[in-house]
Amino acid sequence: MLTFVSQAVRNFHHVGSVWPSSPRLAKALVKPILDRRGHDDRAPIKVLEVGAGTGAVTRTLLSALGPGDSADIVELNPVFCESLERLARERQSRVPGLDARIHANPIEEAELRGPYDFIVCGLPFNNFPPPLMRRIFRRMLSLLADGGTLTYFEYAGVRVARSGVSTADTRKRLRRIEAVGKLLHRRLYGRRTLVLGNFPPAIAIQLQRRGTLPAKFVDAALESDASPCGTGRN
Ligand SMILES: C[S@@+](CC[C@H](N)C(=O)[O-])C[C@H]1O[C@@H](n2cnc3c(N)ncnc32)[C@H](O)[C@@H]1O
To answer: Of 126, 223, 234, which Cα lies nearest the Cα of 173?
Structure first.
């Protein structure tokens, strides 16, 4: 907890929160994996977690996995990666045959081999420039298996709250972030769940890739958001 708070204070842009996610939010984000296991489906599962922090969600995620399953965990902050390495080692010592790897890189650069059945993302998109958000979603969707599920979250009402106290440029940026979110929601069968048991309350968002969704289709959808206020950078 202390590690998370001190890194958040130093680097709020990337961390995007002063508090790690609660167990309830973690459960909402990992729900598609828990549901699959609930159906007693023992086929091996391949999972990607992006922006794992100190492991608030990773803990729940790894406890849903068993022998033969694998998890690639991507986190750019090296201090957080030390906690994640400990967590992965501890879980693997209890579950032999579980493959959990930490990638200390930004998701844009991490060497990964999809497709993944599940992607769980904790990135603070409201802090990012819209072109970076689109680039990251393009990457994640290109790694998602057909029929796979991607979950991520945002804090409830955060854009409304920030709009009231921000510059015109920031308001424009937040509107574009919202537009990308809505577009993904429409194209990828989005579902939103309010999680009050988190500080602050959050919305867990679930997207699904059904059938063969050509990468080009998603690219085109994300590109179509390239509206006049885009900088084209980042
Ligand atoms: C809001 S915190 C979430 C941490 C944790 N998943 C949780 O829910 O408590 C976002 C995390 O994403 C990481 N991050 C930010 N940009 C990233 C990127 N491009 N690639 C990988 N991780 C990133 C930050 O270092 C931070 O640990």
So the answer is: 126
- Ligand 1 center from residue 71 Cα (angstroms): 16
What's the CATH code, domain 2-222? 3.40.50.150
Angle between helical axes of 215-223 and 168-187 (0-180°, round to 10): 150
Whether pTM exceeds 0.85: yes
Residues with CB under 6 A from ligand 1: 14-17, 20-21, 50-53, 56-57, 74-77, 80, 106-108, 122-124
Ligand 1 atom at shortest distance from the alpha carbon of 52: 6
CB 32 within 8 A of CB 151: yes
CA distance 85 to 181: 31
Report how far ligand 1's centroid is from the alpha carbon of 128 (Å).
Answer: 12
Q: Quick: pLDDT tens for 91-127.
A: 999 999 999 999 999 999 999 999 999 999 999 999 8
**Centroid of ligand 1 to alpha carbon of 222 (angstroms):** 22
Best mutation site among 123, 125, 138, 140 for ligand 1, i.e. most ligand atoms within 8 A of its Cβ?
Answer: 123
* pLDDT band for position 215 (cuts 50, 70, 90): low
Tell me the β-bridge partners of 99.
70
